[in-house]
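Open question from group meeting: does this chain pack into something compact, or does most of it stay loose? Before anyone orders reagents, we agreed to write out a predicted structure and look at it together. Recording both the input and the output here so the notebook holds the full record.
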Amino acid sequence: MRKLVRFALRSVWLCAELLLINADFAWLSLRHGGAPPLRARTRWLQRSCRRVLHLLSVEIEPDGPCPLDGLLVSNHLSYLDILVLATLTPAVFVSKSEVKHWPLFGWFAQMGGTIFLRRERRADVVRISAEIATVLRGGNLVVLFPEGTSSNGREVLPFRSSLLEPINGQEHRLSVACLSYAVAGGSAENDACYWGGMTILPHLVKLLTKGQIRARVRFSRIERRAHNRKDLARQLHAEVVRLKAAGA
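Structure tokens returned:
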């Protein structure tokens, strides 16, 4: 019964928050005479994610230097990762194109300036690399999940090197993050992580019934980086694994 009441209250609360978030974006667009600039959109996304995480009783525990620009590479456990990282720092995310069609999160992603990758098209990596490079030159932070998919958090999947090309040989700041979750009265693997054959709506409904969720984010800055992207992928993967082991 407690879970049912919690779901009902949060559902009403979520609808109210979405109206406010939509009004916030409409006002932002009005102020800028049309489409808001990228930096304004990332700050809107930050405000919006803070609202949603408060609704979901997600408490964030950051550790280490949180970046403000450059490229941030992270492990990937759930759609919650985007809300958590966006709450900590304004950022542009790189995501698979399927996210566009997700309820709620697809709209958030598009309005927030997300760069979408069509994974079925190898040639699309060239376009994505150019977009990432442009955003980085503008002094923004780009967040990349090079595992290519989300996981249950038991291990860090191998990193794909292709999307690291925009940072290869460049002077942009490079950081890594390691995310983990704990769910009060539940299982992080089954309740917070979004992986395998899970589908978005049932997972979100279940999430709305949960108690407090703790999201731990460990950051690390890469001072000396490998000189080619494949070695760089291995270096960044090893650093995320190190942060995961240190947190355990």
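Observations to bring back to the group:
The mean pLDDT is 92.
The domain at 2-247 is CATH 3.40.1130 (Glycerol-3-phosphate (1)-acyltransferase).
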